Amino acid sequence: MTVGANLVNLSTRITSIKTFHIMRNIKNIFIHCTATPQSATPESITEGFRKRGWKRPGYHYLIEPDGRVRQLLDITQASNGVQGHNANAINIAYIGGVAKDGKATDNRTVEQKAAIVHLLLQLREAFPTAHIMGHRDIWSQTDSRKWKKQCPCFNASREYKYI
User: Fold this and answer.
1) DSSP characters over the chain
2) Which of 21, 72, 76, 107 could form a disulfide with 57 if both were Cys (CB 3.0 to 4.6 A apart)?
3) For each of the chain's 163 residues, which pLDDT tens digit applies?
4) What region does 98 belong to: left with phi over 0, alpha with psi -120 to 50, or beta?
5) CA separation (Å) from 127 to 19, 25, 117, 137?
6) CA neighbor of 94 nearest in space, from 53, 66, 131
7) How far is 12 from 24, CA to CA, in rounded Å?
8) How far is 60 from 74, CA to CA, in rounded Å?
C-alpha cells in the first residue's frame, strides 16, 4: 500500500471517529522517535512495549522508514507516549532517532517526513485546537538542559507550527 492510500484510510477513520463524538478531549499531538536504529521493525518496537509490561503501545501511529504509517492503537484510547499527558494526547513516532554510534540524531527519511506532515494535516482537521509538539517540549521548547530525553531529536514545534 502506498503512503497516499494508507493516509486516505487513516483520514476516513479519523473523520468517522470525530463525527460520532466518541473521542477523548485531544489537547496535544506529540511527535516521538522510537530511539532505535531505522532497521528496527514495528514488531520489535511493539515487543519492547510488552516487555515493559505496558498493556497499550507508546504510540498511536508509527512511521516506517519507507513512509508507511502503521496504526498501533485506536485514537479513542490513550497510549503510553508521554507520562501524565496521555489521556488528552495522540502520539506519533518515526522509526529512528539513533545514529550508528548510538547518539540521538534526526535521521528521518524524506518519506517519513512527508508521511508525518500528511498525518498531522489530517489530525489537524479533526482536532483543530490540539498543540503539535515534540516529546521533549513538555519540559522546554528552547532549553535543552531541561530535557529528560532528546525525543524526537528535532524541533517539532517549530517544524510543524504552520500546520
Assistant:
1) --HHHHHHHHHHHHHHHHHTT------EEEEEE-SB-TT--HHHHHHHHHHTT-SS-S-SEEE-TTS-EEE-S-TTS--SSSTTTGGGEEEEEES-BB-TTS-B-----HHHHHHHHHHHHHHHHH-TTPEEEEGGGGT-SS-GGG-SS-TTSS-HHHHTTT-
2) 72
3) 455 555 556 665 555 555 444 568 899 999 999 989 999 999 999 888 888 888 888 899 999 999 999 999 889 988 877 777 778 899 999 999 988 888 889 999 999 999 999 999 999 998 999 999 998 777 556 666 654 666 898 999 989 999 9
4) beta
5) 12, 9, 15, 19
6) 66
7) 18
8) 7
The amino acid present at 57, given as its one-letter code, is P
